[in-house]
Amino acid sequence: MSVPDTETRTSVSSALATLKADPATIVKAILWPLAICTMVQRLIILVPDRAKTDDFTAVYTAAVRFLNHKPVYVENYETVSPHYLYPPSGTLLMAPFGFFNPDLARNIFVTLSTIALLIALYIMIRMFGFGLGSAVAPVVLFIAFTSEAVTDTLVFTNFNCFVLLAEVATMALLMKNRALWAGIPLGLALAVKPPMLAVLFLPMLLKRSWRAGLIASIAVPFILLAAGMALAKDKGSFFKRTLPYLFQARDYYNSSIEGNGVAFGLPPWLILLLRVVLGVMTLVSVYLLWRYYRERNELLYLCTTTGLLLTAEFLLGSLGQGYYSMLLFPMLMTIVYRASVMGTWPIWLAVYGFLSYDFWGSQKWLAFGRSASFLKCTYGWTLLLIVPFFVLLYRYLDARAEGRLDEGIDRPLAPAGTGG
């Protein structure tokens, strides 16, 4: 039996290659229908069915009381029901929903939230150089709507989609050096959820041309706060009653280290130690990103730095809830870059922890199921701080040992044809 020569084998391989479909075409054919059906199922089944957690009723009640010039901050913080925690500036922005009946107001809010989410995802993929015709678009849409973060935000009817839109709009405008305009969406988000996106102040502060954004991002919430307080019946109640409560670590529906530490009875010194160690790791990672990526890949630097700081805020602060994780989408999107810290499997184990909609409660494995359910998000956020720290530190030590720190800390690509 004769062995085919090299020319014959090459022609056979070329012929077989022409029979294979384009991978991007396959991804689009599979994921567009899956993504759209998942989105529709969330909107027409899960949202109308609602859930035991209802974030919107407290907001709607506050809006109605505000419009009727009644005290807004009258919550009983001893209960575990969702409380109204927005400052007077947020009350002012939410007030128009009080003109409608509760069901219509909720439907309008969910509709606007969905539109805000879709716009945010579109801006994000465009920011990374992709369009709706790319395979990236259905991947992003599918991951978003299968996530616990988006699903619970829509079902619980929370404000998070608007915060995500403000985040990516701010980033997109910063990347176009329209810093003053970038401060407006950031300021609007801070007016409703003050601490959430304040981490964006750091990259604005560190880059001279972005510092103008600080003016608008600080001025907008302060102007709205002054207006809200001027129109409120209980002008100082937010600062006297609600603000102190916000600094307390509650032991329910709280994925932060302190919240879970209190719930599981960890000693205070261990809770503090965990927060300090992870805080130091975060600062080291942020410094290495600033030092070696700020000029080489500004979008990678901005998204990764913001993602790490947000994760630290959720994990190390007094309150971290799983659906905040949608604000980490821009960091996840950096996977398209070779230098991204998202390119290792442990970090996607972290992503599973804080985005997966899987419920780990078990009738057979009661203790394990309970712990896994409560700690899944906490473990995910923790890994999201630990893995980038070691990835960036390894790159730095490797580059220093080889004397190429002046060229950056990423390992150079192997010359073409070397097979390396």
Automatic annotation (TrEMBL):
Membrane topology note: Multi-pass membrane protein
Alphabetized UniProt keyword annotations: Cell membrane, Membrane, Transferase, Transmembrane, Transmembrane helix
Positions of transmembrane segments: 104-124, 130-147, 180-202, 214-232, 269-290, 299-323, 335-357, 378-397
Alphabetized Pfam families for the sequence: GT87 (PF09594)
InterPro entries assigned to the protein according to its UniProt record, in alphabetical order: GT87
Family note: Belongs to the glycosyltransferase 87 family.
Protein's name according to its UniProt entry: Arabinofuranan 3-O-arabinosyltransferase
Organism the protein comes from: Tsukamurella soli
